Amino acid sequence: MNATIAEHGAYRQANLLLASFTPDEMDSAIDWMSEQMQRKISSPELEQYGYEVQSARLLNTEEGPLGIFYFVDAEGQTVTLAVRPHDESVADYRFRIVDVNNEKLAYWTDEGLDYSLLANVNTAMMTTLAAAVSP
């Protein structure tokens, strides 16, 4: 990738970024993101599975607000969660897990929100993590 393309990508993402939050700001992040999405989102509770939240971001995309949460465990393995309001003109997504570049991607719709979860875990753990994310 050349520097011009990389710079453009970084510039575009920076323009999409509405807010960024640290771990100690998660309560206010959840409240603010819920307000921006006009739907109540829950705090992802992955600590019981060894994952600590590192940061959260809210992006303003063409499809509307997109919340992204980044988690890491003691071994440095990451979990990324994305949440956005579900487009009511589209049928809900039923829960699915697919393989993407040696990782598992789970996606589904629940209570008016679309979720996607990406992690390098087995299918059973992905199902467990997804259950911990949904309200």
Describe the structure.
- The structure is a single chain.
- The chain is an alpha+beta fold.
- The chain has helices spanning 3-16, 26-37, 123-133; strands spanning 17-21, 52-61, 64-72, 78-85, 96-100, 103-110, 113-119.
- The longest helix has 14 residues, at 3-16.
- A 7-stranded antiparallel beta sheet has the order 1-2-3-4-7-6-5.
- Helix content is 27%, strand content 39%.
- A hairpin with a 5-residue loop joins strand 3 (64-72) and strand 4.
**How much strand?**
35-45%
Task: Write the H/E string, N to C.
Answer: HEHEEEEEEH
Enumerate the strands of the largest sheet in spatial order, edge to edge or round the barrel: 1-2-3-4-7-6-5
The beta-strand count equals: 7
Count of discrete alpha- or pi-helical segments spanning 4 or more residues: 3
The secondary structure category is alpha+beta
Give the overall shape, derived from the CA principal axes.
globular
Which ranges are low-confidence, i.e. pLDDT below 50, for 5 or more consecutive residues?
Answer: 1-14
- Whole-Å distance between the termini? 40 Å
Bin the helical content: 25-40%
Radius of gyration: 15 Å
Give the integer mean of the pLDDT values.
86
Major sheet summary line? 7 strands, antiparallel
